[in-house]
Amino acid sequence: MEAQTQIAQNRNDQKTASKTEVENENTRSKSKRPVKSVLPAFYSQVDGLSLDEIIERAFRNNGEIKIAQFEVEKARARRRQASRRQNPTLEIEQSSGRFVGSSGDGELSVGFAIPIDVYNQRQKRISLADAEITLKEAEIDARKRSISSQILVFYSESLAALRELKVLEDLLELDMRTTRFVQIRVNEGESSPLELNLLRTEVERLRARRSLVEGRLQASLSKLKFFAGLSYKDPLKLREDITVASLPGLPTTVETGITVALKNRPEIRLAVLEEDLATAGLRLVRSQSRPGFTAYTRYTQGRQGFDDPRGNFAQRDRALTFGVAIGLPVFNKNQGRIAEAEIAIQLAQEKRKFAEQVIKNEIATAFRRIEATNRAYLRLETAVLPSARKNVETIRRVYEIGELKMTDLINEQRRLLDASRDLTEVLTERYRAKADLFIALGINF
Fold this sequence. Notes:
Elements: H1 2-31, H2 51-61, H3 63-82, E1 89-96, E2 106-116, H4 121-188, H5 193-228, H6 254-264, H7 266-288, E3 292-308, E4 311-327, H8 335-400, H9 406-441
Antiparallel strand pairs: 1-2, 2-3, 3-4
Helix pairs in contact: 1-4, 2-4, 2-5, 3-4, 4-5, 4-7, 4-9, 6-8, 7-8, 8-9
């Protein structure tokens, strides 16, 4: 009897100690989170960078855009050259008969010639140069669109990794608290050590997953640093969360989107400008294929000596000549250049037609993706995730009273994690679809 009394007393003391330990653990949990979050290193609404700021930095520091700007300056320099008129020609000629035995003979000739712009070739050269400048400027917009598209890809990857990291940390924090509770139950003899080991294995699996997602987030942010012109050592934090991230100026219907895209897409503008450039070049080549005219004048002063029985005499002659030289395009009529310009016009027209087809398909595809992700998001957010969270909470409570096994709780938590990943995937796909629509519209941030 005394032994049984002693055993009962020991059990009561153990339960009292366990309750005290639980109370102390709860106090520590309130003052300190079980899991140290890494989110503050990647996300901040105060000092984080928005998508607009990243793209603005990229446009300011990108080497391709700087190269394209130099191409524009070169085109402007060619335009200044095209506006210059052709130079005149000055000819001076002196002849002497001294070296052939006619010392008294000689002639001085001074001529001046200037080309005549009969077919307005100068203005055609200027029009061609202006078209080239406009084309080079449009190429800058096309490069900016390409860079924005690349940034949006890495930005959406960063937002997706950031959300998955948050989900993992929330679940990991919950499992850490459960681990402490199970540890106390194992100490009391109410749970087997196997359940604690299973839970610890799940915790380590979540930690490994968190490390993997964190690495993926760091890789995406490194790409964004490159575009933003930041050093790889500089910190970069995001200001947005994928659940609230949005893009400005998105239309609500496919027809409106196609209209906006056909008006703003760089491909359409480039095709039109290439056609204008080829047309201007064709006009210039045709004008150069016609006869060329050069006006000239010449002053001639000659001295001719002759022998006479009375002595040597010299005769002086002066003459002023006017005329026009005509270049006849008999052999070279620029047939090849004309054919090349005509083909360039047809090529630009085909590019525009093909670009219109591609744009319409991109707009329609983006709208279908957005509609599909909206339906999936609504179902996950209103039906799947609330039920999954409720199931985990219910199974956790039932486990705490000893009616279920730890494997049941772990399996249900994995279902919740899978559902959260599905939601992250849907949010990511929806943002990417909106980003593709934004890029397809050809509008600026």
